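Sequence in, structure out. Go.
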Amino acid sequence: MALALDVLLWLIAGAWLWTSVKWALDLLAVPLLPALDEPPAGPLPRVSVIVAARDEAERIETTVQRLLGQRDVDLELIVVDDRSVDGTGEILARLSRDDARLRVLRVDALPDGWIGKCHALQTGGAAAGGDWILFTDADMWLAPDLIARAVRAAEAERADHVSLFPHQREVRLSGRVAGLLFSMLLFGNAAGVNRDRKRAFFGVGAFNLVRSEAYRALGGHEPLRLEICDDIKLGLLLSRAGRRSRAYVAGHDLEAAWARTAAELVAALEKNMFAMLGFSVPLALAAVTLNLVLWGGAVLGPLTGRPAGFAAALAWLTLALPASRISVAAGWGWPPALLAPFGFPVLPLVVFRSMWTTLRHGGVRWRDTFYPLEVLRRGRVRWP
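Output:
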């Protein structure tokens, strides 16, 4: 029994150490978005920005004004008012009268076989006239030169797709800890596309910039019509088609008001995490169990008084090292990174809650529309 316990604890120590090293290397593979050393030469790149907005009256005006403030691009802004009932349409109509670059499209009814946001993005994408299309969210704040820098980076890398990691603003300590852990998971996929790894894919709803020709060759958002994680799966479609993607960190040049606390992050990811696992119950349960065993073994390891137990705990604490790189770069300092190992149970909690809620309700409710689980399973995008 003692030998079996030692073997288990050494395996847990090895798993934590491997995770820390992998995450550290993944972070190194995702650089900051390069600055513009000089203004673009020749014609400005033509970029269509697509925003799907539903009941965003509180923040849509600020978002639109910041987007219209982009420089060094020939900008077209298309905001799709997706069945809003809170005055979003009136605000957009007023803003469009003041700036001809803003086009407002209204969706009054959702067609069968579509998720609302995916249909709104398809509507906007079909009307886009730019050489590049940027899909972004209604709560995003962009630095004035961000789009021009992303286009320049894409052209320099001969990429058809660029995604940017945003900075979370107005986040409390618990939200920072949980956000660090979730970000480190995503950096693995981002590093994969930057290394041109086969079958790697990535996407971020906050900033998905895609070459118009590549997007239309995929059929737009039509293949993603029933995808909860349409932003990530857009990257999958592009990778599957042999298109190159790149991922960068935008820092404070791309800010989102998303989840201020750990509890808000768990709630925000309720619809996403089970979908990211393909709505597979065995896979979700395996992920939850494995993560809890690794965390529990590290926390309880020192209580055994055995060297393997202390090794498991020390290896677990090394998670603070890769977390510190993100936390310090975000201006959050060291405390969130030092607490990251202790916040690790948030990740299996997110997975379990997402699975449990989806199964209990028999589907996902999003933007006041219910999507049955069997329909979502049939419509998900996968590798052939």
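Check: The beta strands are 46-53, 74-82, 102-107, 132-136, 140-142, 161-168, 208-211, 245-256, 363-366, 369-372. The CA atoms of residues 72 and 310 lie 55 Å apart.
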